[in-house]
Amino acid sequence: MRAPALIAFLAATPLAAQSVADSSPFRALTLPTPTEYRSSSGRPGPRYWQQRVDYRIRASLNPDLNEVRGRETIHYVNRSPDALPYLWMFLEQNICAPSSITNVLDQPPLVFLGSTFDFSCQGFAGGLTLDSARVGGKEAQKTIYGTTMRIDLTKPLAPGDTIDLDFAWSFRVPEQGAGRMGHDGTLYEIAQWYPRMAVYDDVHGWNHEPYIGAGEFYLEYGHFDASITVPATYIVAATGRLANADEVLTANERARLKRALASETPVAIIAKDEVGKSETRPKTTGTMTWHFVADSVRDLAFAAAPNFRWDASGYKGILIETLYRTTADKWEEANRMARGAIQYFSEQWFPYPYSHATTIEGPIEGMEYPMLTFVPNSPSREEQQWVLAHEFGHEWFPMVVGSNERLYPWLDEGFNTFIDLGNAAKYFAGTAYGDTIEVHPLHLYPDHSVPGAEQPIITKPTEVHDLFWDAYQKPALMMQELRYEVLGKDRFDAAFRAYIRAWQFKHPTPSDFFRMMRDESGMDLDWFWRGWIYTTARLDQAVDSVVGPKVYLSNRGTMIMPAELAITFDDGTQSTVRLPIEMWNLGSRFTYRVPGSKHITRVELDPRKGLPDIDRRNNGWPRP
Question: Cβ neighbours of residue 569 under 8 Å, at least 6 residues apart?
């Protein structure tokens, strides 16, 4: 090396001309600087904080008027280091107001394969009527912007201080409110139904993105105390523990529930031939009030109907409940499906933390709330299991791991779809469906990963054209590739479980997830996240040639991944070698030197076909 000449050249060259953009696929991602709130390891920092919000709700459902009416007190605790001069809230029933963004824009329905989600209220002229709003006992200074509301305080809420907000409100129930709540005759599935606080966090401050449909929810944790008054003939299921079972259930039903809690197989709480009969209710005239309490939850929803069948079983002290109408022909097996999902997710990833897991059959295509899900009667047994288990998977993401769904649906929908795959494979093991379901996202890749049309996973859900792929299936495929092709199952599983434990009942961001997976696994994964989440990079690995014992490989695409080679020799023997990601450290070409002296007759890249390689014609040598 002619060092003196090089030094002289650099000295005479301006600094700007010496700079070269770092184009390495291994370059570091630009992530937010770690703080005392969020550490460089991806865990909550020593001074991590989040607000606490407790709700006391007294509400009534009047089917004759098709109306929900309520009063609530919100106890808000400012645990942040900031003084808050105003508070932001959501009035999400305003999505059904004629002047809402969703109705004015008349957005087309979102199609998920065979399912359609209409994020309008289908012409229903609704919206929330706010009868009163008081802060600290005085009339609130409020401004409403569609589904959001700003409350200006008379003086800033200091760090450590608390404040009480009181509201009275009502709304008419749409048949299908933005695809997530509504009613079908006398069956009501009620959600997004009470004024609630927006999240204030250390990342964005107030998270007040309006609810217009595609983006779901981001909420604070706290305690809920809800009393729901309904006609006496109605059965109610809700988030939380039923605190007055002696008043609203018969002695026979209470005895059956006790037996169900210790049973692995379903017990009929209300059998098919008992539906709608007077003996299933303590009284049949007037109204009854059902009282529910819940801790460490971010939301509360309920369902009510006079004609539920009700099955229940138990799993480790958790009551597994399925409530459905007699017309729901796929729901005879629903309790078994539900119990299998709660057991699988608990044993594989993180123990279910709540007292019950209840699912309701009804018109909503599928929606999740703490301890409660809405699931339709599906056209096939396989689809029924998938939707039911998928909605229960949301008890882990985002009910336990409380990510921001309105910005990052892949952190909940994608992770949930990923864990669903293993559950479905186990439930249907030995069938064609069960033995192939885990490769389903990979098979979807060619149809959805279309150049010029595909969008990065990081795209906001309200801007995504193919949410089925971007938020659900591609992130699930990404997690499978990380588990099986990059880290290995044991290494991945340990890191992912640690992420769930660290962020239970907290608010992680993508950066926290990236950092924690790196810290736990011991592998720098910035290259992986860049290819899968921040870009629409495509993989194209190729065997360029074979000369003697050398196999010349290249990466012709914009994504990098490890490689697997199957080598056949002239004596008929075969060898398979897995090449780690470091093979691309020096660029897009790599030469693999085959040990030994045998003559190579055939080479194939990715023989298991586990990678989303866009051109398999160049994966073998000699070329076909």
Answer: 575, 598, 599, 600, 601
- CA-to-CA dists, residue 45 to 52, 152, 205, 256, 464, angstroms: 18, 31, 17, 46, 33
State which H helix or E strand residue 58 sits in: strand 52-62
> pTM here?
0.95
> For residue 1, what are its two tokens?
């090396």
Closest C-alpha to 514, from 99, 170, 42: 42
Give the residue carrying structure tokens 């921001």: 404
- pLDDT tens digits for range 214-251: 889 999 999 999 999 999 999 999 999 999 999 999 99
- Residue at which a domain ends, from 509, 534, 559: 534
Domain shared by 197 and 149, yes or no: yes
Q: Are residues 359 and 460 in the same domain?
A: no
20 CB neighbour count, 10 Å cutoff:
6
Are 112 and 185 part of one and the same domain?
yes
C-alpha–C-alpha distance, residues 473 and 468, integer Å: 6
Q: What pLDDT sits at residue 109?
A: 79
State the number of CA atoms in the 13 A half-sphere of 202 facing the CB.
22
Q: Which two tokens stand for residue 15?
A: 């600094």
Q: Is residue 227 in some structural domain?
A: no
* CA 368 to each of CA 123, 148, 250, 374, 472: distance values in angstroms, whole numbers, following the listed order: 24, 22, 28, 6, 15
Q: Which domain holds residue 459?
A: 432-534
Residue type, 246: D
Domain of residue 63, CATH code = 2.60.40.290
Q: Which two tokens stand for residue 371?
A: 């301890």
9 falls within a domain: no
- Which of 215, 247, 277 is the last residue before a domain boundary? 215
pLDDT tens, residue by residue, 168-183: 999 999 998 888 999 9
Are 196 and 283 within one domain? Answer: no
The verdict on 344 and 491 lying in the same domain is no
**Residue type, position 284, single letter:** T
Same domain, 206 and 249: no
Reported as type and span, the H/E element at residue 257 is: helix 251-261
As a whole number, mean pLDDT of residues 431-442 equals: 97
- Res 567: pLDDT: 98
Q: Is residue 416 part of a domain?
A: no
**In the chain, pLDDT over 90 holds for what percent of residues?**
90
User: Could you tell me if 329 and 437 lie in one domain?
Assistant: no
Residue 418, by phi and psi: left (phi above 0), alpha (psi -120 to 50) or beta? alpha
